[in-house]
Amino acid sequence: MIKGFSIRTGLRVLAAGCAVGVLAGFGANLAPARADTAQPAVFNAPQPPVIMPAPSTLQTDGSAFALPAQWQVIWQSPPTPLLTRAMQRFANRMSVVAGQEVYVENAKKGKDQNTFPIHIQYAREASFPAPTMREDYTLDVGPDGIALTAQGPAGVLHGLASIVQLVRREATGPVMAQAHIQDSPRFAWRGLMLDVSRHFMSIPTIERQLDAMEMVKLNVLHLHLSDGAAFRVESRRYPRLQKISSHGQYYTQAEIRNLVQYAAERGIRIVPEFDTPGHSFAMLLAYPQYASVLPMNTTDRAEINRAALDPTNPATYSFVRELYAEMSALFPDPVFHIGGDEVVAKQWTLTPRIVRYMQAHHFATPADLQASFTNRVAQILKADGKIVMGWDEVLAANVPPHTIIESWRGPANTAKAAEAGLPVVVSGPYYLDRLLPASAYYETDPLDTRKDAAEAQAAAQTTGPGGTIATPTDTKPDAPVPPLTKQQKTLILGAEGALWTEVVDEDMLDARLWPRMAAVAERFWSTPQNCVPQTLYGRLAMTQDKLDLMGLKSREDADALLDRLAAGETQAPRVLLSAVSPVRNYAHNHEFLQIRHKQTATEQDLNTPSDIASPDSFEAERFNAEAAAFVNGKVELKPELERQLTIWADNDAAFHQVAARHAALTPALAASTRLAALARAGLAALGTERTPGWREQARETLDAARKDIAASSSIHVVTNTPQPAGDLIQRIVPGVEALVTREGGLTLP
């Protein structure tokens, strides 16, 4: 609390994750507000605010006041240039969310009675952003003004993000909720791993993600900058990397420096990753003298995942030393990610000179040889003052004590790293490229060791003939993992959402990241008690509305992609996409499956309905929630259920007509027919359009829809199970099943 400024009156503690009921957040009203300004007046209709991630403590009575147009910032200590620019962003964001101009100026001498005061007090930090930055803040918001107290610059940024989320539009104009918030993050490392090697993402596109990350209080962008597909950063020491291995798309060193600064302005660190010794095909395409296997196979796409550096060649270490030194200079963050994952054993065991080296130096296994490589590279970076980070395969090496382990192959590796006293970042449960819905990621806590590691292990075995050095037996995926001890939990720095981009290009990025990344961000920031699955989708809908208003292009890009498939006739496809999702667990990654089945890998077309369909449909989630509420007594929801089901049932004929004129929609014909059948089953259960034998038809329709969903229920299942036509599954099955079971009197398995 800032001395001499108090606004808290009669506010009650509200569990932050419970702020919005199951249905209340859907269809948030963001219609344009009135343009005139008014003095703050408290409104009578309480509506709890929605802030994602949920704050540690939120006190509110649900009341709100008219949003003032003229604001005055009163700094208790002079703002840094970074914070001055943050206030400019804040004013812009307030304006777009409110639907009217909001002017924010620094206070002049003497109090201006016609402005709304925001008092800000913060402590300076010598280095920002940094792994140890202080992010706590306290916020008091009322009609008399706002008080924001922070432990450091990050806390100011977080407090401003929360203020923006307290604004909502009403018919009479924009209002702001009254609240008292005390907030601090659960984990210090809350990141997004973005693969820009497999598909290049432009600087403006990355900047959009950074803007959204700031709003949901993420603080690390882990950029996967090299892999088999491409090397993406200009190297002046090794210019062939961008000349040959970037395929014409790379970041200049000036662009990297500017991007690092852009992120820092938003309290976000950028951690670079340059993957070695595996996943190095792009490096070796430019400099084949460091390859394990020569000549390199440049015609087989699967080889992109297999090529590895030669760890027995002394020149390899000179190459890595000089390249890493050059790249380290571009990224001031103390952490440098060296990769270390999925090295294909046969790259070494079938190369005679490497076998001879292993025998001469007593390396019994390829894992031992990789451990030697990892240790040498770690020492190189340690000498440059960097903290080494690597995927959990590097656990086999005698790495320096502070090496950060990124656990992706299951909780056993998280526990193994913590037992070794090494700090850990968990990413395995949060692989967004598995195309699971937000709720699936949200239900997993970073400290949870109960999840079966078999799924992560299955994902690791994707390189085809030869297998990776880290075999499933290394972590015994079927063995239960004991809960982490109290001491081990202190070593979990946090977690990352990860998006590998084999089947995600730049036009799809926003929609493939958001809103799921907002749900993941809440898992990383908020306490388990404040992560409430029952209210997730309502709050996500409201959060996504604001993120799109502030610059995300998830809906805009999806519309553009849909127009590409059905120019001028997008209504029927849009209705279909409101109720379906792409298949899950890499079932839509056709190259993944080709490699698993030792088939010729081919480049995948990303212009299909399943590439536009979202893993989350707010329309489907709302229907499912309303159906559940209806069968539990909210009979007044029947007309709305009938309305929505009728739209889906009638859409099939229109979709078939449009698909006849636009062949790109043909793969989704079966999904459209299945949706219509499900909708008719729901209508029949409600007593509308019943025909003889409707119960049996409903049973068959639901069984078929569930079978489609089950076909991609796990990576193991995906490998050997045919997928539904068009790679699409139905999202309204739970709602229809609830109606048919309870209202239709049908017993379902």
Describe what you observe in this structure.
By secondary structure, the chain is an alpha/beta fold. It folds into 3 domains: 12-183, Chitobiase, domain 2 (2-Layer Sandwich), CATH 3.30.379; 189-525, Alpha-Beta Barrel (TIM Barrel), CATH 3.20.20; 553-742, no CATH class. It contains 27 helices and 21 strands. It has an 8-stranded mixed beta sheet, with helices on one face.
Dominant shape: globular
Strand order of the largest sheet: 1-2-11-7-8-6-4-5
Taking the alpha carbons of the first and last residues, their distance comes to 56 Å
Low-pLDDT segments: 1-6, 27-44, 471-475
CATH architecture of the largest domain: Alpha-Beta Barrel
Query: Which range does the strand content fall in?
Result: 5-15%
C-alpha-based Rg, rounded: 27 Å
Active site: 342 (proton donor)
Catalytic activity: Hydrolysis of terminal non-reducing N-acetyl-D-hexosamine residues in N-acetyl-beta-D-hexosaminides
Enzyme class: hydrolase
Signal peptide: 1-24
List its salient traits:
749 residues; disordered N terminus; eight-stranded parallel beta barrel; alpha/beta; signal; beta-N-acetylhexosaminidase; glycosidase; eight-stranded mixed sheet; hydrolase; Hex-like_dom2; Chitobiase, domain 2; globular; 14% strand
What is this structure's SSE topology?
Layout: E1 12-14, E2 57-60, E3 64-66, E4 70-75, H1 81-98, E5 103-106, E6 116-122, E7 137-142, E8 145-150, H2 153-165, E9 167-170, E10 173-177, E11 179-183, E12 189-195, H3 203-215, E13 220-226, H4 240-245, H5 253-265, E14 269-276, H6 281-286, H7 314-330, E15 335-339, H8 346-349, H9 352-360, H10 366-383, E16 387-391, E17 404-407, H11 411-419, E18 424-426, H12 438-442, H13 454-460, H14 486-489, E19 492-499, H15 509-513, H16 516-525, H17 536-549, H18 554-565, H19 571-577, E20 580-582, H20 590-596, H21 609-612, H22 618-631, H23 638-661, H24 669-685, H25 694-710, H26 715-719, E21 728-730, H27 733-742
Parallel strand pairs: 4-5, 4-6, 6-8, 12-13, 12-19, 13-14, 14-15, 15-16, 16-17, 17-18, 18-19
Antiparallel strand pairs: 1-2, 2-11, 3-10, 7-8, 7-11, 9-10, 20-21
Helix pairs in contact: 1-2, 3-5, 7-10, 19-23, 22-27, 23-24, 24-25, 24-27, 25-27
